[in-house]
Amino acid sequence: MTVLPYKDRELGKKEQVAYMFNNISKRYDFLNHFLSLGIDIYWRKQAIKLLKPKKPQVILDIATGTGDFAIAAMKLNPEKIIGVDISEGMLEVGRKKMKKLELDSTIDLQLGDSEKLLFEDNKFDAVIVSFGVRNFADLKKGLSDMWRVLKPGGTAVILEFSKPKSFPFKQIYNFYFKYILPIIGRLISKDQAAYTYLPESVKAFPEGDDFLNIFKSVGFKDSQCKPLTFGISSIYIGQK
Question: Which residues are involved in binding S-adenosyl-L-methionine (predicted)?
C-alpha cells in the first residue's frame, strides 16, 4: 500500500511529497535536528565515512533537500557534488546555506525527479541519499536509475529510517514516533500531515534484508546493511 501525506487529495505520491516539503521547507532543518536530538548529524557523518576509502570525485546527492548530506560529503574533498530534489522550496533554503558556507561553487543544487535523473549513464563515482528513498513513488525505479548513473565500480550509500527490534527501545521509539513527534512537528511546521506521514512511511518501508533484496534486484552487488543507534536508522551500501 502506498503511504501518502495527504489522504484527502487526489494527487499522486510524488506531487504530494513535493507539496509537503515545499510547505515545511523553512522549518525543516530546525525540526530535523530538534526531533532527532541532533543524532541525524552523527548518522550522516557515519554514512560519509564509509565512502572515504573510495575517494569519490563526482557525487550525486539524491533527494538532497536543503543539502545537509551534500555538506557532510565535503569531508571527502570531491571536485563536484550535484544535489537533486523535487521540492523547489527545500532547494531554495539549501542554496542560501551553500552561499553562506561558500560551498556554492562545489555543491550545485538542482530541481529534479529522483526516479528520472537527467544525467547520462556512468557519470558519478558515488550516489548518496539520506532519508529520501522512503519517499520515492516507485522504489525499484528510483534505485534502478541510481544504478544507471553510477560509474562501474561506483558506490551507493543510502541512509534511511528503520525500526528498533529490542526491548525497551522498540517500545520507547514507537511511542515517540507515534504520539510525540507528530504533535511537535505539527505545531512547529504548521503542516497537519507531514509529521504523521513520517512514522507511517517508516512503518511501510521495506527495511533490512527486504530492502537489500530490492537493492540487489536492480543490479547492486556486495550490498550490506549497517544499523545505527539501536536500529533507528540504517546505512545501505552497494556497488555497481
Answer: 66, 85, 113-114, 130
